[in-house]
Amino acid sequence: MAKIKIVYGSGSGNTELVCEKVAGLLKEKNHEVSLLKAKLTTPKDIGIYDLLIFACPTYGHGELEQYFGRFLVRMKNEDLTGKSCSIIGLGDPKYDRDYHLESIKIISDFLNKKHAKLIGMPLRISKCPLPLMNGHVDRWAMKIDELMRA
Asked: What is the three-class DSSP state of 49?
């Protein structure tokens, strides 16, 4: 099956929780999945993959989690042309109604500039992810599975 890498930034633990759930579901479908914390990951650590998933919450007024933001800066010289990528974004409108899922746009813009191939729709989680873990997150992971098998 597919080799999937998930690089995530997580300050409060919500993004990490979602990524662990996605990784577990994809592993159940026999994909090889690696979780990589942006804080501890360099572009060279990513290695070979069939799908690279970027996962990040939005903080404040449309800002990336600090370590994920630094990770994207380190990725600026990496060639992602034609590479399959997907996005997981979390946010809470109590911080900013207009920009609470801005991480998705920032990552999408970055991947488009790098000529990556976006796979599926981004997984969008507004507010606490717990009520969405056994429905919304499951469906998204199963769609990624289907797309990787196609």
From this structure: coil
Tally of helices (H runs) and strands (E runs) in the chain: 5, 7
What does the pLDDT read at residue 78? 96
Domain boundaries defined on the chain:
3-149
Contacts of 41 (CB under 8 A, 6+ apart): 7, 71
pLDDT tens for each residue of 90-148: 998 877 777 889 999 999 999 999 999 999 999 999 988 877 778 999 999 999 999 99
User: Quick count: other Cβ atoms within 10 Å of Cβ 2?
Assistant: 18
| Level-2 CATH architecture, domain 3-149 | 3-Layer(aba) Sandwich (3.40)
In degrees and rounded to multiples of 5, residue 48 shows phi and psi of -90, 140
- Dihedral in degrees, nearest 10, Cα atoms 6, 9, 15, 18: 10
CB 6 within 8 A of CB 32: no
Residue pair 78/42 in contact by the 8 Å Cβ criterion? no
> How confident is the model over 66-95, as pLDDT tens digits?
999 999 999 999 999 999 999 999 998 877
* Locus of tokens 């979390």: 90
